[in-house]
């Protein structure tokens, strides 16, 4: 089979275009990772400063906050109502990221993250989903978890068993 010069040139152009496109996507995702990381740092910083408006502006209008207690699943409005007294009294939380991972959906408009946080509860895990809305990354879902070292998990289970047994039964009966 004889390869013509035109065919070879076509293959070369397609190959170079594919490589350049892949590099542009990689560069875009790196830029977006930096934007998301800064947004999450600023989001946590707004809570630490008890800046109610700034903190809640990082949430999308339709968003969910899932707290450390099994009963804490709030939409944005309910979370704002719950959190307002803490912000008013300047008794909010101060979370500082120790380690963060960010991943993207193929189209790049959605990303998810997980991070270890230094908090007043010691190490916690924050995770969630962010969406690019109107050119800005917004929190769609945030999940806060208290980490439990494997060495003490049995002790923690004993402590929480009596508290959570009732809830387990309620959830099973729904």
From TrEMBL:
Keyword Manganese attributed: no
Domain of life: Bacteria
Signal peptide range: 1-22
Domain SnoaL-like: 36-148
Name of the protein in question: SnoaL-like domain-containing protein
Keyword hit for Plastid: no
Pfam family, one: SnoaL_3
Sorted UniProt keywords: Signal
InterPro entries: NTF2-like_dom_sf, SnoaL-like
SUPFAM superfamilies xref list: NTF2-like (SSF54427)
Upper taxonomic lineage: Bacteria, Pseudomonadati, Bacteroidota, Flavobacteriia, Flavobacteriales
């Amino acid at each position: 089979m004889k390869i013509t010069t035109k065919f070879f040139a076509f293959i070369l152009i397609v190959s170079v275009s594919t490589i350049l496109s892949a590099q542009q996507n990689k560069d875009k995702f790196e830029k977006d990772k930096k934007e998301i990381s800064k947004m999450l740092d600023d989001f946590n910083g707004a809570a630490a400063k008890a800046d109610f408006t700034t903190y809640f502006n990082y949430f999308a209008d339709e968003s969910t906050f899932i707290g450390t207690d099994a009963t804490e699943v709030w939409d944005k409005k309910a979370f704002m109502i719950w959190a307002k007294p803490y912000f008013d009294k300047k008794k909010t939380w101060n979370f500082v990221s120790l380690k963060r991972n960010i991943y993207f959906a193929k189209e790049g408009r959605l990303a998810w993250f997980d991070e270890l946080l230094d908090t007043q509860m010691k190490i916690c895990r924050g995770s969630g989903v962010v969406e690019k809305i109107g050119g800005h990354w917004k929190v769609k879902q945030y999940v806060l978890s208290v980490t439990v070292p494997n060495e003490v998990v049995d002790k923690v289970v004993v402590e929480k068993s009596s508290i959570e047994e009732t809830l387990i039964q309620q959830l099973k009966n729904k």
